[in-house]
Design a protein that fits this description.
75 residues, 4 helices, mainly alpha, globular
């Protein structure tokens, strides 16, 4: 779930099976900048991730998605 994504760290949803890469992430909280890098190409952002997602190449599409998440995913 992306609900509350900006209020938590990586690998923090209880009972969700995260990849080892996500569990060992070196940051403590998702920020819009980190989500932008993730959305560009998850496998480059976090090698070893189990998430299958090719990324979003269009900057404006990533910006709009991040804005939506910032508003709609607040806890």
């Amino acid at each position: 779930s992306l609900h509350g994504v900006f209020e938590r760290g990586p690998g923090a949803v209880p009972k969700f099976r995260y990849s080892e890469a996500m569990k060992k992430a070196e940051f403590t909280q998702w920020t819009p900048e980190l989500v932008d890098h993730w959305l560009q190409k998850p496998t480059d952002f976090m090698p070893g991730t189990a998430m299958f997602f090719n990324g979003i190449s269009k900057e404006d599409a990533r910006r709009d998605l991040i804005a939506y998440l910032l508003v709609e995913s607040r806890e």
